[in-house]
Amino acid sequence: MASPTKQTLSPDVDFSVIEALAANVPDSPDTFTRLAAKNKLAVDFRQDGDLVEVTASETASISLSLFEHVEENGRTYHKYKEGKYTLPNDELEQNRLDLQHELCKMSLHGKLHLAPLKPENLKYTLDFGTGTGIWAIEMAETYPNCKVIGSDLSPIQPEFIPSNCSFEIDDMDDEWIYSQPFSYIHGRLLVFCFTDAISIFRKAYDALEPGGWFEMQDTCAPLGSIDGTIEGTPLLETYNLIAKTFLEKRGIDVTVASRFKSMMEEVGFVDVKEVKIEWPIGTWAKSAYHKRIGAWYQRDLKMATEGIMMGLFTRMLGWKKEQVDELLVKVLADMDDKSIHSYQPFYVVYGRKP
């Protein structure tokens, strides 16, 4: 299979902020934790609070491939195990996933992971729920002597990939059958996929070699605000409705990321570390770090919300597309309102198999 050196982005995409952050990558997870502690979430009350420029082009991305799908209300969804996953898999969603990848790296100051991996010990890596495969591809490029496998429900990954990277269609809930143990297993932003997270953690534990690392990165509900300004808004009420009325009925717990650490310890992982980062919704935050993240997460959440609401409200409430669109306008307006100081927690948790 051909192996070009790197994925390319559209010429008008300005990722200079990511490059600047990556140039100051902390030396260790402990260093990262100290750095994150300096960037406490606070409201920017300055009239010139938008001086940290955030352009639409910074959150642009590209679609990577064609795929089989089923269509509902103008969006397409996974064909494999149809109806199991809440979000679409179409071009809009692929764009969002690539944008989300940059958001996660920005949150970690340019890092792909926080687990303290040693290149000389890294032989096989698994990225389950790989999405467009962008993390797996960059991981393969970063560690050229490591074989990286990405798995997902849809074959939406690019055709041209590094020679040490491969993709497969698979469901994390099925039995994990691999011919070799992994040095590192990674999962990211899969909260809508989990109905039994600890069973996935056990599979990861069993699939790792002794000394191997497991890392999870995910958001956690509910949405919050540092001063209560989100209370009573269509944004909060809609997301509470989605969590309690729709997702809980499907066995999905959107608060599970806050328990990743205890779950890893219960399964048997040691040296378990947890890092919690607040993702603001919008540019209301004071620090340049949070302001930048907030702009990207606002764009990401807007794109995700349309797909989530359209799928769940039409399937489970029988709403028409026009009804969903009417509520969506109010929810998106709350995301734009800088007087609503909303955020969502983002957890990074990793541990080692003894």
Automatic annotation (TrEMBL):
InterPro entries: SAM-dependent_MTases_sf
Gene Ontology terms, MF aspect: methyltransferase activity
Pfam families, alphabetized: Methyltransf_23 (PF13489)
SUPFAM superfamilies named in the record: S-adenosyl-L-methionine-dependent methyltransferases
Classification via Gene3D superfamilies: Vaccinia Virus protein VP39 (3.40.50.150)
Annotated protein name in UniProt: S-adenosyl-L-methionine-dependent methyltransferase
